[in-house]
Amino acid sequence: MQIVRGKLDRPWRVTIYGCEGLGKSTLASNTPAPIFIGAEDGTSQLDVARLEEPRLWEDVLKCVEELHSDHEFKTVVLDTLDWAEPLVHDWVCRNVPGEKGKKCSNIEDYGYGKGYIHAGSVWHGFLKRLDVLRSKKGMNVMLVAHSHVKNFKNPEGDDYDRFEMKLRQASAGLIKEWSDAVLFANYETLTLEQDGRKKGIADGSRVVYTERRASWDAKNRYGMPPKLPLDWSEIEASMKRDHSADAAVTVAAIMAAAEVLPEDLRRKVADGMKRAGGDPTKLAQLLNWIGTKGQK
User: Fold this and answer.
1) Dihedral sign computed on CA atoms, order 210, 215, 216, 217
2) How confident is the model at residue 131 (pLDDT cuts 50, 70, 90)?
3) 193 & 272 share domain
């Protein structure tokens, strides 16, 4: 039996999403030796390498296959996922018959969400192709998407609006699960109290959030801090950094912050620390939770 221990240094899989004009494509252009797949007008103002703009989903797959040849590129960027999704739906309609072999002209024609299930299978196959590219050519993968605001059906309380990837929910869920990091890009918002009411004011700073919150989806497998500047050098450094040393600092901050909390919340903090162990990400989440309680 061959056993491998420790961290594995593998090409990364990052998905970044946010509203238009934030600089997501610019961020992707600063990744190691990138080459873009997508609509040319999305990167027309950037001096980047691009494969010929795909018109059909088959063209997207061909672009991925072309990257198995010899080249100098180290990162493949799909810009954007929501640009590619209609191509996926079109492929399904052209290649997957509906009931009784009937040809479907629209993804909705399959009925009962079946068309989106077929689309999910196409996305799954695409992600497997990207993984082959990672293993065979050592290429990193960055997927870019726009965001939109959707109402979240909260099973534990009132519903609320949140930012999500501008994709069908099932497809977005598949991509989030596959990614090593899902980063939500947005403007930094400061809270200002005026006339007894709190208002959110964007100060112009652009940031990425690396952990899920009620207002957005995000995650990472690197122990990154909850928020970073929208700057690839900062993000990459955080991905490569050994965050184990951060745990001791975070624990000290948790202990100090918990001192002003009521006894019942201090007990919850103690339980949270036991569950977190030495995981920097979980400890950072606990510290953030304490901060929300301290503001009340």
Assistant:
1) positive
2) very high
3) no
225 and 273 part of one domain: no
Query: Does the pLDDT of residue 195 top 80, yes or no?
Result: no
Separation of alpha carbons 296 and 262, rounded Å: 12
39-86 per-position pLDDT tens digit: 877 788 899 999 999 999 999 999 999 999 999 999 999 999 999 999
CB atoms within 10 A of CB 166: 20
Print the domain residue range for 268. Answer: 246-294
Question: Same domain, yes or no, for 111 and 180?
Answer: yes
Question: What pLDDT score does 29 carry?
Answer: 96
| Interacting residues of 289 by C-beta distance below 8 A, sequence separation 6+ | 272
Its pTM stands at 0.79
Per-residue b or e along 271-295, where b marks 16 or more CB atoms closer than 10 Å to that residue's CB: ebbeebeebbbbbbbbbebbeeeee
Does 7 reside within a domain? no
- The pLDDT tens digits for 146-182 are 999 988 877 777 778 899 999 999 999 999 999 999 9
